[in-house]
Design goal:
Order of helices and strands: HHHHHHHHHHHHH
Number of helices: 13
Largest sheet: none
Radius of gyration: 31 Å
Distance between the termini: 87 Å
Shape: globular
Helix content: 55-70%
Strand content: under 5%
Length: about 325
C-alpha cells in the first residue's frame, strides 16, 4: 500500500484572516533602501540656490578683500584695507545713522498703527470688506507709483499738502527739501505704503484667539480695555515679535523710496547705508570697497536678528 504525500508547494494555504495581508513579512532590523527620487526634485532648487546665492556670497567676500574696480579688470589683494577704510569713513557712519534713525521712526508707528487698524476691523467695524481693501491696497502698489504720488503731494510750490496749508494761513513746509523734515516725510510715505502687510498679520492672529476667552472675561465683568490688556495683547506676543523682526529688517534695508524721492538729499540727510554702498560701487566704481561696506552692514543685520531672537526666547521663558 503506497501513500502519497503533498509537497509544500502544493499544500494549500489556509485562508487569511480579515484585515491581514498575504505579503511576506519583513525581517526585523532590515530597512528598505532609501529612494533617491527626491533628490532629483530638489536638484533644480539647489542649483539656483548655489548659483544665485552661495556663489555671489563667496565671490563678494573675496571681492571685499581686493581693490576691484568697475572700470578696471585687473585687481590685487588688499586684505582688510577696505574694511579699515569703511570703519573710519564718517560718511559711512552718517549713512548708517540715517538708516538706524529711519528704522526707529518707521518701525514703531508701523507696528502700533497696524495693530490699531486690525483691532478696529476685528471688533466689528461696519463695512469690514471696505476697510480691509482700503488698508491693504497701498501695499500692492509698486514703489515707483507710490513715490510719484507722494512727490506730487510734497511739492513745495503747487503740492496738495502745501496748498492746503496756504488756505489755512500756515507757512509751507519743505517736506523733501528740509534736512529736519525729509526723513520724517519718507517715514510717512513708508507707513502709508507698507502698513497693510502688518495689518494682515495682526488681523489673522486676532481671528485665531478663542472666543470663549472673551466670553468668560465678559461674564466676569471685564470691560473692553480690560479684555484688551488681559487677553488680546498677551495673545499677540508671538505675532508682535515676528512683526518687530520683519519690520526692523525691512527698514534697515530701505533704499527705493529714499532714492526716488530725495536721492539721499538734502545734503545727505536721507542717504541710507544701501545708497552709500550703491554710490561707492556704481558711482565711485570701487567694487571692492562697496563689497566690504556691504558685509559690514550684513554683520549688523545678523546681530540685530540674533538679538531679537534671543530677547524673544528670554521673554517667553
Amino acid at each position: 500500500m503506497t501513500t502519497t504525500t503533498n509537497s509544500p508547494a502544493s499544500t494549500p494555504r489556509p485562508p487569511a484572516a480579515a484585515g491581514t495581508s498575504l505579503a511576506p513579512r519583513r525581517r526585523p532590523g532590515k530597512q528598505p533602501a532609501p529612494s533617491r527620487t527626491g533628490y532629483w526634485f530638489l536638484a533644480p532648487y539647489l542649483f539656483f540656490f548655489a548659483v544665485f546665492l552661495v556663489w555671489p556670497i563667496i565671490y563678494g567676500l573675496w571681492m571685499s578683500l581686493t581693490d576691484r574696480s568697475l572700470v578696471n579688470d585687473e585687481s590685487s589683494f588688499a586684505g582688510l584695507a577696505n574694511y579699515s577704510e569703511a570703519l573710519t569713513d564718517p560718511q559711512m557712519w552718517s549713512s548708517l545713522g540715517n538708516t538706524l534713525f529711519f528704522t526707529v521712526i518707521s518701525s514703531v508707528p508701523l507696528i502700533l498703527v497696524s495693530f490699531a487698524m486690525a483691532y478696529l476691523v476685528y471688533t466689528g467695524l461696519k463695512g469690514q470688506w471696505l476697510w480691509r481693501l482700503t488698508f491693504f491696497a497701498p501695499f500692492l502698489l509698486p514703489v515707483s507709483v507710490v513715490t510719484a504720488i507722494w512727490a506730487f503731494l510734497f511739492t513745495n510750490d503747487f503740492g496738495l499738502i502745501n496748498g492746503l496749508l496756504d488756505r489755512f494761513g500756515i507757512s509751507q513746509v519743505g517736506w523733501l527739501s528740509d534736512e529736519q523734515v525729509a526723513m520724517w516725510s519718507i517715514a510717512l510715505v513708508t507707513l502709508w505704503w507698507t502698513v497693510g502687510f502688518n495689518f494682515l498679520l495682526y488681523l489673522s492672529a486676532l481671528q485665531n484667539i478663542p472666543d470663549h476667552l472673551y466670553e468668560a472675561a465678559q461674564l466676569d465683568g471685564a470691560g473692553t480695555w480690560r479684555r484688551l490688556f488681559s487677553i488680546t495683547l498677551p495673545m499677540m506676543k508671538s505675532t508682535t515679535g515676528l512683526i518687530v523682526l520683519l519690520q526692523a529688517l525691512a527698514s534697515l534695508k530701505v533704499f527705493d523710496q529714499i532714492f526716488l524721492l530725495t536721492a539721499g538729499g538734502p545734503n545727505g540727510a536721507t542717504r541710507s547705508i544701501l545708497q552709500y554702498i550703491y554710490d561707492a560701487g556704481f558711482t565711485g566704481y570701487r567694487l571692492g570697497y562697496a563689497s566690504a561696506t556691504s558685509y559690514i552692514f550684513f554683520a549688523l543685520i545678523v546681530l540685530v536678528s540674533l538679538a531679537q531672537m534671543w530677547f524673544a526666547k528670554r521673554k517667553d521663558s
